[in-house]
């Protein structure tokens, strides 16, 4: 069973055979009365773009997905189920799910079990033991306001401390407050003492401040090479204060928070034809418009398969989805080929840089990259160009911020200015 | 050339897989210092698919049996697939006898057996000037080890060619250096080794020369089969540090608005196995970069490079930046103390050639007659001048949000290569029978700017369009030699290219005159042909064919004496927002002015400078690689290790100001390096101004900045 594959494949796990959960139809976001039901296989990017996820979580869940997976490439691949089961210690997503009172729906042989976030996230293995499969995450009842605050050395790094808050009002009083913190000795946790302090108050500043003091004083913060427990404790207070103030103000106005709003939706995924069960055998896919037949094993990654088929523009970088150098387009969407099993490409269409254009007949993006000096060493260039292609297909007139966010992969030479300019130039040219 | 890169056709070291390839995995030391009692290969040899095991007993030149840092190589296994090799390496029976480890660089500085290099030099009476000074600004800075993070993993592939010669394809920077080291370790004649020059990713991130190259080569020699070795991302992070940890102390004496003394004290931890010559050169260049910017009555440098039981640093570009950073920060503090705009303050004090200390600088390798930094004057003038703040602590601007402090900082840098460093370079041009040229140089194709620049430079001299000069990567067989992968090599190589092109033009003129049967003195060369006075002309293609027919092909190689190259100068300004509650710093704007150009096509050079600015943001705010008390890297997952993403970059602006002098800073890498140093200082100074309490170590991560903010609040 492969879920959380973006983590498992990065960790040299043994994969003797594969059961692809895509066949189980666990994707998608559904609104059921006041509840938001999220299929376990919904990607974080789907949540970022889902109007329902914004509306029914006061935008907390999309914000947490964006923060927890700042790299667009992984956000498009990682699923909420996988991230919840194999979350990083400091995942804002876990904090958000705690603050949203999420309920995890686990299918076990012969029964469906509901496990609240408080229980499930502490040790997902317990609820999944004995053949359990996470089916869905349900957010019961939308909060009125929410906020997420974090402190990190760079935007794209995990937070040293993060605080997620939701508020629900009854009249002008707080009926319910849920507050969760990361940066602890253990996994993210709620601070129920602070919540209790706030409930039934009007959320006045002095009450919020007292609650913030409780947040800083209650849980056991972690001491590690990145920050001391003392730093984390010290910063938890202002972060909690800010998150509470924002969540209270938003909740009072019942106003959706400022967000960059959902991106224009991508083309819906083509209904995949997953191989239900795979040990080894011959895969048939379309590579750059031509049929490709190749033998693969369960453990074979798409990167290995493609490089074996002479697509050397698919670079071998970090093998963990971080660098993005192995980006290819799978049915038009960027994926990290190092974290995608070859079997996933069965019956589907793969585009690599070789399929975009050649030096003799380059794609306009390739020309623009060359002209702008945006390919200093060329190692990351195939990935940047391919993701730019996917972006422009979905969004022909992106803003600079959108380009920065959607270019998958790191570049160690250019400082990104020239690649971003090249993509904007192509967008401007094709717009006129 | 760059279209090839944009279409994914650029070939890197790992893009070949010769048939019969074996995969090499290493067994590494878990302790910082030990003696190997025994490595028992039998559990690995017993596995089907294991082709060779190398141990200290049978390959003592490669595996010395005395690991000197955590992660040092103990043994290697070659097998049919990478996973098998890794499993087999784990199965080797290894017994170590731990030895005492040196992990405290400060303590090591007092122990001569640990000192790799020392430098002490003084001009004038520094102590006297410090004693008499109106004010003394002093500061101490610590820079952490920085790993070389290239997207391309450190990697080597080796095989025997049809003549049974060893071929090595590596992602290391300098093919010739790798060949020399391999010849020594494998006891082979250098002529028996060909080191290919694939593209190298990362634009000069720097990595040690031999990480797996020698072991792969040994496997190939032993088995006759191709071998491939690659470092996993976590290994690359911890075992291939580019820049060493260092501590710089600076004292700056101010007297009557002048600097009466500058005192620099530097300690560099170069890690295990440091090459003493490289360490000594590192100290000299660190001293040059710290001392050659500003006029000062007296100057002194005391520097020591120590060997410890930590991974050896590659001493890549920027390794020597600690002392200069400390000086830039002290200059900023001094300007605040004097109540003078920091740009104005620096401009008043810029060194002119021949100022006091020039003999000392010459002894440190500075070029005589060019030991000043007057080129900084227009650079500093062109940066927006800063608001003058009379008193320290008032330098940051309060914003509408009382928690966020906005501030601006300035930094300057001067980068020079040692005049004595024998970084030679060669270039070779061949006129082909279609009138185009093949250009071969030995400089590594890391940055990309350079190849384009070389072809352009040659084409301009040869009067042909740039596309008619094909820049062919030279390996150790075809190139004469390379100048290593340091920035001056680029400059020297460009000089070699130009000299070669001029020599080629002379030969072409003569050959053309022969074709036209006129006196060589009477022909002109333009637009790719040689013209006689009577309007008859011979195209380069005709001349090339004629030369071949005559058995006198036009092949020109020159290797100009290394000579001197001018310093690169840059100034930078950074705007930052500092969150006073959390210590989080956002760089909101970064501008750099660099002496250089004009360039026919600046885009490639600009990209390099912009890349250096990005690296400066990363280094200033996030880069670190901590070790624990036993010398083990406290590893971070590659998934969360700080690497700057597109969304982390502030808006940047880069301006080139041509200097009057020809050639100034012709190498993109050297310009980029200067810009990066200036930007780092600018960010650090901006944060210092915002916090009031000056942070004294990099990176300026939230905990450190918050601590600096508290220090300001405390008194």
Which descriptors apply to this entry?
heterodimer, A: 432 residues, alpha+beta, 5-stranded antiparallel beta sheet, 5-stranded mixed beta sheet, B: 715 residues, 7-stranded mixed beta sheet
Cα(first) to Cα(last) distance of chain A is 49 Å
Largest interface: A-B, 76 and 73 residues
Mean pLDDT of chain A: 89
Read across the widest sheet of chain A, the strand sequence of neighbours is 2-3-6-4-5
What structural class should be given to the helix and strand makeup of chain B?
A: alpha+beta
Structural class of chain A: alpha+beta
What separation lies between the terminal Cα atoms of chain B?
59 Å
Number of helices of chain A: 18
The average pLDDT of chain B is: 88
Helix amount of chain B = 25-40%
**Helical content class of chain A:** 25-40%
Main beta sheet of chain B, described? 7 strands, mixed
Q: Give the uncertain stretches of chain B in residue-range form.
A: 385-399
Shape of chain A: globular
Q: Note the beta-strand portion of chain B.
A: 15-25%
Number of strands of chain B: 28
The rough form of chain B would be described as globular
Strand content of the residues of chain A, in percent? 15-25%
Determine the oligomeric state from the structure: heterodimer
Radius of gyration of chain B: 27 Å
